[in-house]
Amino acid sequence: MKIINIGEKNSVLNTFIAEIRDKDIQKDAMRFRINLKRIGEIFAYEISKTLHYSNKEVVTPLGISTCNIFDDQIVIASIMRAGLPLHEGILSIFDRSQNAFIAAYRKYGKDNKFNIQVEYASAPSVEDKILILADTMLATGSSIVLAHKRLCEPAEPLHTHIVAPIASADGVAYLSKNMSHKKTTLWVGAIDEELTTKSYIVPGLGDAGDLAYGDKR
Fold this sequence. Notes:
The protein is an alpha/beta fold and 217 residues long. The protein is built from 6 helices and 12 strands. The strands form 3 sheets. Strands 1, 4, 5, 6, 7, 8, 9 and 10 form an 8-stranded mixed sheet that branches. A two-stranded antiparallel ribbon has the order 2-3. β8, α4 and β9 form a beta-alpha-beta unit. The longest helix is centred in the N-terminal third of the chain and has 20 residues.
């Protein structure tokens, strides 16, 4: 699995990452969602550089122009609900893509231990397509692995791009171990070293779903 941390280079992405982390700016839920959408657009632009392109003739009002246009079919998938603003940003760039949505959550037991439950997936076939799987935070990595497994039943995509603006070092290691045999690229904006006993990323940013859409029961 290839890992690309685009936050290592200076760009406006780092401003948006800083703002979604900032506890005062987080009080504005609309700005939080807009920043995630902007981040999704940036990741989509970077992913676009990896696609397959061919020359196409485009008829203008005054003649014909030859343009390089990507040929790949794309499926954008996100884990609800935190991944939805990110999904919107990616879709605004790859606006003709097919879309998939997955419901996954942590089911806690004793001693802060939990299992990831994937209860719902609405998705087209990913066979011979480029799959972009997005979630705002990559904590343990379990949700992404299970979501990818569900999406790839029974067919495999040509390539999977995983987008996670904030990731933990443990989550990155888990994906590297469990998806090493896949044609996969992990795109992150920042990698945080600490994961608490409750599997919260530190410094992280808190609960992205709550910050975007309000508290849940």
